[in-house]
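Obj: model holo form, ligand = nicotinamide-adenine-dinucleotide.
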Amino acid sequence: MTDRLSMQDPREQYPKPPFPSQPQPVPGLARKMEPVPDHGETSYKGSGKLAGRKALITGADSGIGRAAAIAYAREGADVAISYLPSEAADAAEVIKLIEAEGRTAVDLPGDVTDEAWCRTLVDQAIAGLGGLDILVINAGHQQSREDISKVTSKDFDETMKTNLYALHWIAQAAVPHLSAGASVITTASVQAYEPSASLLDYATTKAGIVAYTKALAKQLIEKGIRANVVAPGPFWTALQSSGGQPDEAVQQFGAQSAFGRPGQPVEIAPVYVLLASQEGSYISGEVYGVTGGAGIA
Ligand code: NAD
Ligand code: MG
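Output (holo structure tokens):
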């Protein structure tokens, strides 16, 4: 493969649709995807931007969270990873990659729709890392439903709990432990600005994440802590192939982007590094779009 950082046409850099049919139960596993996403396993090179930092990332077993976890470890951070127990096979690969950098990995399987677990997970991350400097709240639940009549209260609850309540519970538990220079990063979506008809509940939570993070940024800067949002466009992750999109849409995923392809998780990792690092010292309350040309707002 050409070096990721050598000059080239970005539209041609990674696989394009059509992709094979590949439905999975939720939550999907990255290791079962075809093609397997690039989370930076061999392609992300660090340069000491996060030396000695301590980071907690939710949903770090796969997709965007995994790409952030690999990048953070390569930049010199110790990383605690939160994920669902059924994703242990993906998570084990991430732990290996963090440890291969000589960094500490803290393993935190559990369900963030449970308030008590959210508080415990923050405590365990802090105990295992010896503190907390970077908090990435990224876990997400997305199930497409073609019509309002199909969004059950159970569906609605699951999406709200995973995407919004857990954000509040984890942030609330973590904030007292953060000190000046720390950084909080949330993952919203282009869906916050351009909601798809089939993602009523999901898009609502993503707009909520933007508002919550901007409000939190105003509180936290009083303590010298920054908070920002990343808003991805279409990224090739198991979120999509496990019901986030219908299977036919997964086969064409990214075709509508100006790039004619979805983003690979490693292509968004540098934004999580920038926002976490002191290079982002004047960046707070912002929303960073990485949308493949669609733009946000
Ligand atoms: P992903 O499925 O690889 O990651 C999502 C992770 O969320 C899962 O790995 C899982 O560990 C975690 N999670 C879900 N429910 C959980 C629960 N109840 N308890 C604990 N962990 C739970 O998919 P991804 O695309 O990398 O998703 C990461 C974030 O990016 C999500 O917030 C998603 O909404 C957002 N996003 C993704 C896209 C995209 O196209 N892939 C676009 C915009 C936004
Ligand atoms: Mg996963």
